[in-house]
TrEMBL record:
Domain of life, per lineage: Bacteria
This protein's record includes keyword Transmembrane: yes
Keywords on record: Membrane, Transmembrane, Transmembrane helix
Transmembrane annotation, as ranges: 6-29
Protein species of origin: Streptomyces termitum
Protein name as catalogued: Secreted protein
């Protein structure tokens, strides 16, 4: 009887130890994954970040529904990191960068904050915002290449992570030719942030993405066109002065 009792006790103890080790291993792996995610987004526990909201072109301050969807996806990422988000309108974000992580949604035509970031942080990348001619509207130029859009069929969006400022917290830009491409970029970030963190090791990057047939597939079919980091970060050479 004593032998049977001892075997039962040993069996229960072994089961408890195995359960504890399994729980500890899973918890350690989860925490390690969380820390990597927090480091990539610059969002430690209980930190604050900014979601800079653009406006719909011609919408008198309204936010396009696809941009709202993009903000919701970003808010979920922030919550997963254990951080808190503050929503700020693009024309009221009168502050520097680097102290808090910033997610800036929309191109320079609908978001003044994006326009300022492109000018100061990505001098080698431009997006045409003039209403005429229509064919030139939204054209992205970087590295000597031009990327016009075919609305609903082929559209482009810039996804950037830039580390600058004294605080070292990143600025994320979602600079698309249409609102649906902004959402496509946020969804691409949510799906691939682990690979992006490994590839770029926490540094700055600027990716040009192509959104394929959004009129049929929405923001889900996205292809990486090129890593244009070096060209975007480098100011274009000044034109020679006329003699």
């Amino acid at each position: 009887m004593d032998e049977d009792l001892r075997n039962i006790v040993l069996g229960v103890a072994a089961t408890g130890v195995s359960a504890f080790l399994g729980w500890f291993t899973r918890t350690y792996a989860w925490r390690r994954k969380l820390r990597r995610r927090q480091a990539f987004f610059g969002l430690p526990d209980h930190s604050e970040c900014l979601l800079v909201v653009n406006r719909e072109a011609g919408g008198d301050g309204a936010v396009h529904r696809f941009d709202v969807f993009a903000l919701l996806e970003l808010a979920a990422l922030v919550k997963d990191c254990g951080a808190h988000a503050q929503i700020v309108q693009h024309d009221r974000a009168h502050m520097g960068f680097g102290d808090r992580t910033e997610f800036c949604v929309g191109g320079p035509g609908s978001n003044r904050r994006t326009q300022a970031h492109l000018s100061s942080l990505l001098p080698g990348l431009t997006m045409r915002t003039e209403p005429d001619p229509v064919a030139e509207r939204g054209v992205i130029e970087v590295g000597g290449e031009r990327y016009p859009m075919d609305p609903g069929a082929v559209e482009f969006v810039v996804l950037a992570r830039i580390t600058a400022g004294d605080g070292g917290r990143p600025v994320f830009l979602f600079c698309g030719q249409r609102a649906i491409t902004n959402q496509a970029a946020t969804r691409y970030l949510a799906r691939h942030h682990e690979r992006l963190a490994r590839t770029h090791r926490g540094g700055s990057f600027v990716l040009l993405l192509k959104v394929v047939n959004s009129q049929a597939y929405g923001p889900d079919v996205v292809e990486l066109v090129a890593d244009v980091t070096r060209a975007a970060l480098r100011a274009p050479a000044a034109a020679p002065a006329a003699s």
